[in-house]
Amino acid sequence: MIRIFNHYLHRQTLLQVFFDLGLILFAVVAVVLSQGESAQTVIPFAASHGLSLAGCMFVINSATGFYQHVHNRSVTESCARALLGLMFGLPLAYAIFSFLPANTVHRETITMVAMAAVAAVMVHRVYAAHSGTQSRLRTRILIFGSGAVAKTVGGTLRAADPHAQIVGYFAGPNEENSEVPHGELIQPKGTLTETARALDVDEIVVALSERRGGSMPLRQLLDCKLYGIRVVDIATYFEKTLAQIKISHVNAGWLIFGDGFNQGIVRTAVKRVFDLVSSLAILVVTLPVMLVTAILIKLESPGAVLYRQERVGLNGATFKVIKFRSMRSDAEKDGKPRWATVNDDRVTKVGRFIRKVRIDELPQLLNVLRGEMSLVGPRPERQFFVDDLVNKIPYYAVRHSVKPGVTGWAQVRYEYGSTVEDSIEKLQYDLYYVKNHTLFLDLLIMLETVAVVLTGKGAR
Q1: Which of 67, 126, 119, 59 is nearest to 93 (CA)?
Q2: How many Cα atoms occupy the beta-carbon half-sphere of 382 within 13 Å?
Q3: Is residue 7 a part of any domain in this protein?
Q4: Phi and psi angles of residue 70, each rounded to the nearest 5 degrees, phi first
Q5: pTM for the whole thing?
């Protein structure tokens, strides 16, 4: 994992991005040079047209979910995503290179090569997703511990990354009862440091069930770090591996004294400018969709097209969220708030579709323009549920330290949830966002939101 602007990215993801960008640039530069053009012509040409196309393909591949670290995607689904990417990529390549000067030598050839490079990128995305060659790049991990906590770490790591190279479990000094498979216990080859070096370990995850009474060999862990082996505690491990903060393995001290949770003036100003510019642009682009949606809602069922409902926002202040009505007008005729469920019978036919592709969220852009919400942030909840969840879930109120968002890290990372357990899972993503939010992470979430909409796998 590599940390960029407070957000952890897999090394494979960065390599994929650089490969795609490099392939397109190489193809463009090579075809121009083959036509006898000088280097002085190639460099500005590649910088303008080649980089423009490469940047567009990065956005397309991100929006279609090809850079997401997913292991259970079928070949059919990957091919479908590639075809969707080609539907946008090929016309963009043709359009970008149609701006070449009319007197450019072999203009048609250059355009065709650029389009072929786009096709090659998509073919390689499908191949890379299923070839299994990326497993050679995995980090070799030693889990320090053999109890219940260590077992949880190992299971979580394998679930998140089937190709993870766990070299084994190294039992702590005071851990008498092992809960991990006996065959995965490491037979010590001297000290922890000597064992880690002998096994060519890249990272040690400290997952001791008991951390008192001399069970933490601090000097040996320091020696490991001095030899270039990364040493992380369990909270940091979950943060970087799952992109969430596990509230069951974190304490207030870790949150207070660790990095993150930066709410400075500059970040606030940048986020506000981003919200204003982006929400206005999205409103203009989606206005026809919103008009058609309003007509369909009105035709299907009686009642208002839009509905306003009180939600909890920044610092616990309440505001009226604006959304397209997706349920019957009498959805809560008894006056009692209810969680929305997956197959909620209160949802209309039009409502079911617009909820699936997130169209019902578009009117919230008005809340963004009014400063009550942000484009990216935790999902705003109703006061009734907030009061209940604050009493049941530790650190739940922390999510109100930033503005709620139209989309967010939890929305794109976790499927539909309607229970307290689901709220806990989503809170752990929200905490990660609140701790690490930057403009870079906001842009990534926006791209993943496009992937969610295009695939119809909206998490609500």
Answers
A1: 119
A2: 10
A3: yes
A4: -115, 135
A5: 0.84
Q: Which of 416, 314, 277, 297 is nearest to 360 (CA)?
A: 297
Task: Give just the sign of the alpha carbon dihedral 418, 419, 421, 427.
Answer: positive
- Examine the domain organization and report whether 307 and 430 are in the same domain: yes
Residues whose CB falls within 8 Å of the CB of residue 460, separated by 6 or more in sequence, listed in order: 340, 355, 411, 416
Structural domains of the chain, count: 3
pLDDT score for 15: 85
Instruction: Measure CA 324 to chain center.
Output: 26
Instruction: State whether 204 and 273 are in the same domain.
Output: no
401-421: pLDDT as tens digits? 999 999 999 988 887 666 788
Segment (H or E) for 55:
helix 51-63
- Within 13 Å of residue 202, how many CA atoms lie on the same side as its CB? 9
Residue 309 · residue 380 · CB < 8 Å: no
Q: Are residues 348 and 426 in the same domain?
A: yes
pLDDT digits (tens, 9 = 90+) for 51-94: 889 889 998 988 888 887 766 678 888 898 899 899 999 999 99
**Which domain covers residue 56, as residue numbers?**
2-134
Point out which residues pair with 311 in neighbouring strands.
Answer: 319
pLDDT average, residue stretch 97-104? 69
| Tokens coding 69 | 């670290």
Instruction: Determine, yes or no, domain membership for 254.
Output: no
β-bridge partners, 195: none
Rounded to the nearest 5 degrees, what angle is found at the Cα of 190, between the Cα atoms of 186 and 196? 55
In whole angstroms, what is the distance from residue 405 CA to residue 42 CA? 44
Residue with tokens 């949770």: 261
Cα separations in angstroms, 137 against 144, 159, 286, 388 = 22, 18, 42, 45
Q: Which two tokens stand for residue 349?
A: 């036919």
Indicate whether 6 and 143 sit together in one domain: no
Query: What are the pLDDT digits (tens) for 352-386?
Result: 898 888 899 999 999 999 999 999 999 999 999 99
Angle at 10 between CA 17 and CA 56, to 5 degrees: 25
